[in-house]
Amino acid sequence: MILWTAVAVFVALFALVTVLGFAAVRWRAGDLNDIHQWALAGRGFGTLVTWFLIGGDIYTAYTFIAVPALIYGVGAPGFFALPYTTIVFPLVFIFGPRFWCIAKNRGYVTYADFVRERYGSRSLALAVAITGILATMPYIALQLVGLQVVIAALGFTGSGFLGDLPVIVAFAILAIYTYRGGLRAPALVAFVKDTLIYVTVIGATIVLVTKLGGFAHIFATAATILAQRPKPASIMLAPAGYSAYATLAFGSGLALFMYPHSITGVLGAKSARVVRRNMVILPAYSVMLGFIALFGYMAIAAGAHPATPNGAVPALILASFPQWFIGVAFAAIAIGALVPAAIMSIAAANLYARSIHMEFVQPACSSAVQTKVARFASLIVKTGALLFVLFLPTQFAIYFQLLAGAWILQTFPAVVFGLYTRWFHRSALFVGWLVGMVLATWMAVAAGFTPVFALHLGARVMPLYVGLIALGANLGLALVLTMLFKGVKIPDGVDATSARDYEEALAGV
Description:
The protein is an all-alpha fold. It has a single domain, classed as Sodium/glucose cotransporter. About 75% of the residues lie in helices and about 0% in strands. Strands 1-2 form a two-stranded antiparallel sheet. Helix 7 crosses helix 8, helix 18 packs antiparallel against helix 20 and helix 18 runs parallel beside helix 21. About 55% of the residues are buried.
């Protein structure tokens, strides 16, 4: 049954963000044929806009769906998302402003630009670019999964082309206004998206806690029902799960700002001070994430029985609220898919235009050509993600996303360590990256496409995050090979950056 009142509210809010997306072309006007203006909005966003942009980029529709779904399904282990968003902001507070300064001074748009000049290596830069594109594609696809879930919950459950039409139309609109406005479009839409999510989360939490008899009753009911399932779970983390939980949280925290779309929001800031301020105030989103996570337990306490765990939040909202609020909540989730999907496609397109097209297809092409290539690449990326979701089982996108975090983590040594030292040999970093990618993929497949691999240490078995194990191998190999290559005097690349690029960051620019 189609919920027409909810649909009307949903469509009205979606129309609002569509208008904003197209209006973004005239917002903070600049030459959108320049790659820095299209891809980074001229690096002109202040503290408030950057806060909405980065928050809108990190906290996605799939976050709203998947985090409570995981908690609905497995209980306490699903809360690993909370500590990792706590870990990441102090980390980026340290290296984010430094990278912003170097990128500003050298004209970088991506991490791969930095790696190319820092190590004088086309191969290493290409490795970083390909990893970024590979890791981003399933992330965009999962935003579409979140969009599909809420559209189906509104009553549009047909099969075939007509069933997919709402998702296709929504993504086509996104593709057009992103093509035109670049980063300005998702930045402007992020204001509406985040406001709706805060209203939804705060309002829903107050109402649901009251209706369900308070937190004590919610936790008690969730604990009882989880324990009675065919595969028992708990609201308390078992000692056997400590290592998996800790490494998942720590590894995911290291990986989050290695994603190209995450650093794109940082590079859109107008100063390093803006970046620092945002790393201080962005944890407000982590507080909101805590309440979103609790929706998983609330769904259990409310007696929700979705077809899959991904339907837990929609089922909870449908059973607990009037249609007008359902429309607001589902619009928040849907718009929460569009903002990050737009930034992700821009970031992936930047990597292709700068590190593949300009480097190998059309060397030294102008900024206008780079922008043109990036615009078309952004359309291709979105189309690829859409086809992935429409024609392949959703589980495939989830499998690849689990791999994506482990893959993108393998770029950490070249990027973050490279901001502070040029000691590592470029060839050693490349071999370390390659081994890390292969090892992460093998472990994830061997573990049945789960992010945790049971590592045997003598008689002890420790489940650990595959990305962190692979990063350890990557870094260890890079250390050993660097000493070996330097010992036998294998030529290294020339560092094109200067000391002044880094000193400005330290001076608090």
